Amino acid sequence: MIIASQISKSYGDTVVVDGVSVAIPAGGVTSIIGPNGAGKSTLLSIVARLMSMDAGTVTVDGLDVTKTPSDTLAKRLSILRQDNHISSRLTVRDLVGFGRYPYSKGRPTIEDKVHIDRALEYLHLENLSGRFLDELSGGQRQRAFVAMVLCQDTDYVLLDEPLNNLDMKHASSMMKIMRRAADELKKTVVLVLHDINFASWYSDTIIAMRDGRICRQGPAEQIIRPEVLREIYDMTISVNDIDGRRICLFYE
Amino acid sequence: MGFDSLYVLVQTALIFVFGSATVVMIDPQLKFLAETALLVTFSALLYRWLFVGAERSLHLLVLVGIVFGVFFRSLSGFMQRVLDPNEYAVLQDVLFASFNSIDPTLLAVSAIIVGVVTIIGLRLLHTLDVLSLGRATAISLGVDYKRTVTIILVLVSVLVAVSTALVGPVMFFGLLVAALAHYLTGNGKHAYVLPAAILIAIICLVGGQVVLERIFAFNTALSIIIEFLGGIVFIGLILKRGAR
Fold first, then answer.
1. Do the beta carbons of residue B56 and residue B50 sit within 8 Å?
2. Strands A188-192 and A156-160, bridge-based pairing
3. Which neighbouring-strand residues pair with A57?
4. pTM of the shown model
5. Phi and psi angles of residue B112, each rounded to the nearest 5 degrees, phi first
6. Backbone phi, then psi, for A59, in 5-degree steps?
7. Which candidate in B57, B124, B131, B137 is best for mutational testing of the A interface (most A CBs within 10 A)?
8. B53 near A CB under 8 A
9. CA separation for the pair A67, A59 (Å, rounded)
10. What are the tens digits of pLDDT across the range B183-222?
């Protein structure tokens, strides 16, 4: 369980995260939604200790993220951000292998190799494992990064807009992989998503943010409602029941 | 990073304040250690200040280096202008990088310092690979980013300070060697890049010295040859980046 209490963060005079307290349950897929600038990515970065907070505390299974040694946390929690530009030339296999760094410290064992193979297989990257990252398409590269994060084998996997730059096919396969990781590997997956239909379809819990605050948290049925979405996004969104799932239409 | 200009400033200030007679009298080992310590302290302070807190870009670091470089150069330029011409001649002798006038008594101290840095560096090899993935990924993989970067920067400053204090400032050399090493190894693994860089550095220095001795018959300085080549590589790098 990730517990954040009273987190605040501001850049200069602009408050980005404003006294947020939230508990993200262990297990399942949790999506964070909200308009641009709501503080979603900042919140995720603070939880994953990539950014310092001005006030508040975050604990992951009782470990305070600012005080626990970084390499201990790296075995419990991993994060993937949106922009992953790498200057050195790496193959997919090299990159995925980095996911084992918290365990092997650069000296991979046979067990690490098993993990790397499993992660490559999980994201259907076996055929691409020898290719260099700069020879891949955006979607393939994104999958390689996700494979690295899964290879890190942490209980908590945090992904910041993992569907960026992915077409429909790859976006839905990415979400299926996340769903499988939560169901089969018992991971806690936390995603920042912009597409509320993906959030509605695949999440167990949705957290909605606006203006640096949490405005709603609950299962998809409670959040994906026209009146709630109006409160979050300030726009008219019609919600339709299709085969028992809630699908939003906002193209008008 | 303004290292060379700081070195020039330290030398100029020494002669300016104490006069060449006193400077020549100082124990060379003591002077060497003091110079190294000063250069390391300066860079550690600068880097600390730049890296404490939020993520800063490399461009900012380079810009700050340039600004500091100009600042130190102006200061030493001012002092050099006020200096007695005889004193200035002594100073100028010190400021030209030369591999022919190394003080042999300093070699043992330098070797020990470089050896210690190398051992620490070897232990960090894999961490360096992880750092090349970027700050966010490195932290996510459990690298204590601030601490590791500080250690590496201090190591780099020590190495730069030792070589500058030993032979004098050679610009572009580091850039030349690092770029060539990355280009030739073709991958980012530091276990390959670092030995390659060391070998290329030796080739450049010894090769440059051969050119200096055989072709120019000591009529020029090694740093001029290396800066000429380094400048060309630097321009090449910028053009290649621009073309992408």
1. yes
2. parallel
3. A5
4. 0.80
5. -65, -45
6. -125, 145
7. B137
8. yes
9. 10
10. 788 777 888 888 888 898 888 888 888 887 888 776 677 7
